[in-house]
Specification:
This protein has 416 residues and is α+β, with helices and mostly antiparallel strands. The chain folds into 2 domains: 3-59 and 125-199 and 299-373, FAD/NAD(P)-binding domain (3-Layer(bba) Sandwich); 80-119 and 204-295 and 383-413, D-Amino Acid Oxidase, subunit A, domain 2 (D-Amino Acid Oxidase, Chain A, domain 2). It is built from 9 helices and 21 strands. It has helices spanning 25-37, 66-74, 111-114, 125-142, 268-278, 327-343, 350-378, 386-399, 401-413, and strands spanning 17-21, 42-47, 61-65, 84-86, 88-93, 106-110, 120-124, 147-151, 157-160, 173-176, 180-183, 185-188, 202-218, 224-229, 234-240, 248-257, 285-289, 293-301, 306-307, 310-312, 318-319. Strands 5, 6, 13, 14, 15, 16, 17, 18 and 21 form a 9-stranded mixed β-sheet that branches. Strands 8-2-1-12-20-19 form a 6-stranded mixed β-sheet, covered by helices on one side. Helix 1 packs parallel to helix 6 (327-343) and helix 6 packs antiparallel against helix 7.
Length: 416
């Protein structure tokens, strides 16, 4: 065997030796939670990004449900000052061509109605990742014998030991980041966007493009998130902290048909004019728009989270349409459930433990995959009366408070 790839033996007398691959939000949250709740475990965090690379300015927007905010607060890794609370969500259907009293239905979810401080929060990717990384590096400095970072070391291969020639096959994984190391468990949390990913077991291109940027608003309701169902796809505004001059801002996700992209050829002024015809009055009026970026939308999901001693979470397990904004929230719930399960067992129990984890995460994971997939595909259907039917569904939901509350709870905490 090449000496550069020989396996390093596990450290003795530690109940778990865990590799976390990917130092994005899901990977960092998992590593930090495992460090706190598995006090005997040895944890190694891998990422291709150099440790000294400043990620704090990454402007990508994240929408986190209340359950995720609570989880990050418990970890001591929630950048409160950088986040904007979502206190109300308005979901509505743009008026269809036919004039029916219920065709432009809407549903409002309010934190006050659920007895909580917020439904969720919005912040930048950079603010969250830099906060999580600082918390992880502080923990590593306190316990350098069991917590390790391998920044600047991309992982080129992760294999179950049973599949490695010459291995004893008793369990565990081999992680190769220039030199092969053996672990009891490897958690893959490297994500990426749909267009850049290798296709997983379940893959579907929705034929939609998401245009993203920041809108400046006049007359906006503080803390209001808006999702508008249009003929081409959903249009969302997520509240951001006000600008330095006090102007209201919102992160915008505007989904349109890729083959007939009506946004691409427009000037900024034209885009603003179109947005103001699409958005409901409660959203306020768009008066400014940042330069927009765009990316393709699709479903890319593994059938199972578990492969031997390898577990995938977040976008490594499923990349979803942003219609429900639940991708990262699913990954954070995966991380929390995995760490909880590891607390109850030792490495010898790993196969049974991971089977239980798969079953435990199934209802939450598959209900969210199915719901977002159905909604995303529905925007490609051109059935007569479909927009009106969506409007009717929203009106009925608004008229049934127990059902509306159940939906709000699922969006905040996942399916329990």
């Amino acid at each position: 065997m090449n000496p550069d790839t020989r396996a390093i033996a596990p450290t003795p007398n530690l109940p778990w030796r865990i590799a976390v691959i990917g130092a994005g939000p899901a990977g960092l949250a998992l590593a930090l939670q495992a460090a706190q709740r598995l006090p005997g475990a040895e944890i190694t965090l891998f990422d291709a990004r150099p440790a000294d690379k400043d990620v704090s300015g990454d402007p990508r927007t994240l929408a986190l449900a209340l359950g995720s905010v609570q989880q990050l607060r418990r970890l001591g890794a929630w950048p409160e000052a950088a986040a904007q609370a979502i206190r109300e969500v308005l979901v509505s259907q743009a008026p269809p061509t036919i004039d029916l009293p219920w065709a432009s239905g809407e549903v409002r979810l309010r934190a006050a109605d659920e007895g909580v401080e917020m439904l969720g929060a919005v912040l930048s990717y950079g603010a969250l990742v830099s906060c999580l990384q600082q918390a992880w590096q502080a923990a590593e400095a306190r316990e350098p014998r069991r917590l390790h970072s391998r920044f600047g070391q991309p992982v080129v291969d992760v294999r179950n030991l049973a599949d490695v020639a010459g291995a004893d096959g008793l369990g565990g994984v081999q992680v190769d980041a220039g030199i092969a190391e053996c672990f009891d468990l490897a958690v893959v949390a490297e994500g990426g966007v749909f267009a850049d990913q290798a296709r997983k077991a379940l893959a579907h291109n929705y034929g939609q493009t998401a245009w993203v940027g920041t809108a400046t608003l006049a007359g906006a309701t503080p803390g209001l998130a808006v999702e508008r169902f249009t003929r081409e796809g959903p249009l969302a505004l997520l509240p951001l902290a006000p600008a330095a001059d006090g102007s209201a801002r919102a992160a915008m996700v505007w989904c349109v048909t890729s083959d007939d992209d009506a946004v691409a050829p427009l000037t900024d002024a034209q885009r603003i004019a179109v947005l103001n015809t699409l958005l409901p009055e409660a959203a306020g009026r768009v008066v400014g728009l940042s330069p927009l970026k765009h990316f393709a939308l699709g479903l890319n999901a593994e059938r199972t989270l578990v492969d031997g001693a390898i577990v995938r979470i977040g976008n490594a397990a499923q990349t979803l349409h942003p219609v429900a904004g639940q991708g990262l929230n699913l990954g954070l719930r995966d991380a929390a459930e995995l760490v909880h399960a590891l607390r109850q067992a030792t490495p010898i129990d790993l196969p049974a433990l991971l089977r239980r984890l798969e079953w435990a995460r199934g209802p939450d994971r598959w209900s969210m995959i199915a719901a977002t997939d159905f909604l995303a595909r529905s925007f490609t259907w051109r059935w007569p009366g479909l927009p009106a039917a969506r409007g009717l569904g929203l009106s009925l939901l608004q008229a049934l408070p127990p059902l509306k509350s159940a939906l709000a709870r699922q969006m905040m905490f996942g399916r329990r």
